[in-house]
Design brief:
mainly alpha; Amino acid/polyamine transporter I; 18 helices; 76% helix; globular; binds 4-fluoro-L-phenylalanine
Length: 452
């Protein structure tokens, strides 16, 4: 019976460690790099509101479901899905969900690593004092020159991928546990410092208004899809990352409460990042919708203007790289766990192979910012296409299936036994995954397809 199962990959040493690792997975480039720029591109307040609603009504219930399913299955998401389907006497083909997750993980990591490479190179730039003076023209041209160079992007992408592979090869519960314990609070403190700087720009209120004053005329179906997709992306949902982490979770840990902590921390970090960035955007006459370069064109202005800014700059980008690393390892873990379980590979070999595949796709992403910038598919560059395909389509579809599986296919007594939730709280969760979350995803898709 499943209850006595243990993962062959080991277990987290405590609930706290799991919270750290899962928060490490959730908090990453999505919060600090992506959230501000997509908020800027989609007009601000209304977009933020839709995103927050999606986190609450769709993200949190699905996170609870993913952790719970992982812990019950105790294997890579592919094998977990197969096991859970058998346990529920359902169609074995449910394990396609695990496969889609593995594919989404590879695709996300291929561009995630390129952007994390930008952050790495900005550590060096900060250290060399390249931001000093902090005038926005100079900072913008620094960024433009940087992304115009394919070799620089590939170099830093390679460094980041190698770091990811080394950590994954050693097993997720080693050094990373210790690192995240210290780095997460440090990142939080430095974000507060940047918000403090934003308050001195004279444009703080304007920044807040942009983020929190909803104007629904500014969003359309695509913006709603992006907000919903981002709720999945930022919480690492819909592809098995949180499921595989859940499979290393000891028994008798409250899954629901843990999910609330993770989602809460993740949301706070994203909002703080926005509150730091938008005042700087307005104070310097920049465009909130200027795209993926937004944080690289704004925060260095702050570092260039504050005392010991180079040091804070180094600290900020180092912490950002670590936040990215603790996410990237979770992107590749479902694939590595499966290779170890089914192909008899060592963690080391499995990490190397997964890393090589991801690295190769990443090279195409790096080119899409310069020499291949003219190449488009459906009007999107390779980077935009991968981002759209994964965050806006694959993760919500994965999340939809997870909600349907846990709400309709899994036996109630099994989910209840695993969650150790009773009465109203269980009913509320069950209602959310059975009806609200799948219906919400479905309606957003219909809307984007123009059905209404
Ligand atoms: N949640 C991460 C971030 O916000 O940066 C990205 C991510 C990690 C997405 C793991 C999906 C995933 F499975």
């Amino acid at each position: 019976m499943s209850v006595s199962k243990k993962s062959i990959h080991g277990e987290w040493s405590s609930r706290f460690t799991f919270i750290l690792a899962a928060t490490g997975s959730a908090v990453g480039l999505g919060n600090i790099w992506k959230f501000p720029y997509i908020t800027g591109e989609n007009g601000g307040g209304a977009f933020v509101l839709v995103y927050l609603l999606c986190v609450l009504a769709i993200g949190i219930p699905i996170m609870i479901a993913e952790i719970m399913m992982g812990r019950r299955g105790r294997q890579s998401p592919i094998n977990t899905m197969q096991f859970l389907a058998e346990e529920a006497s359902a169609d074995k083909r449910w394990h396609f969900l695990g496969w889609m997750g593995v594919l989404a993980g590879f695709l996300i990591l291929s561009y995630y690593s390129v952007i994390a490479g930008w952050a790495l190179s900005y550590v060096l730039k900060a250290f060399l004092g390249s931001f000093s003076g902090g005038d926005s023209e100079h900072i913008k041209s620094l960024f433009d020159q940087f992304i115009a160079s394919p070799w620089q992007l590939i170099f830093w992408h390679t460094v980041f991928m190698v770091a990811t592979m080394v950590i994954v090869a050693r097993g997720v519960s080693g050094g990373l546990e210790k690192a995240v314990r210290f780095l997460m609070p440090a990142l939080f403190v430095i974000l507060l410092l940047l918000v403090g700087y934003a308050m001195t720009t004279g444009f703080y209120e304007q920044g807040l208004e942009f983020m929190f004053d909803p104007d629904f005329s500014k969003i359309d179906g695509d913006a709603i899809l992006t907000a919903m997709g981002h709720a999945f992306f930022t919480l690492s949902l819909g592809m098995g990352a949180i499921m595989v982490y859940g499979s290393y979770l000891p028994k008798h840990v409250s899954v629901a409460q843990t999910a609330l902590y993770i989602a809460g921390a993740d949301t706070i970090v994203a909002l703080l990042a926005g509150m730091a960035i938008f005042p700087i955007v307005f104070a310097n006459g920049l465009e909130p919708g200027s795209g993926p370069g937004l944080i690289f064109q704004t925060l260095p202005i702050a570092f260039g203007n504050m005392t010991a800014g180079w040091l804070f700059g180094v600290m900020f980008f180092v912490l950002l790289v670590f936040a990215a690393l603790s996410s990237s390892i979770s992107l590749i873990e479902p694939a590595v766990a499966w290779l170890v379980e089914n192909k008899d590979m060592s963690r080391r070999t499995a990490s190397i192979w997964s890393g090589i595949v991801t690295w190769l796709v990443g090279v195409a992403v790096a080119f899409s910012f310069n020499i291949w910038s003219e190449i488009t598919v459906f009007d999107k560059s390779v980077f935009d296409l991968l981002d759209y395909l994964t965050a806006n389509l694959m993760l919500p579809i994965g999340g939809f299936c997870i909600a349907v599986f846990s709400g309709w296919v899994m036996k109630k007594e099994h989910s209840q036994e695993e969650l150790e939730l009773f009465g109203l709280t269980y009913d509320l969760w069950h209602y959310l995954v059975k009806f609200i979350a799948p219906a919400a995803v479905f309606i957003v898709f219909l809307h984007v397809l123009g059905v209404f």
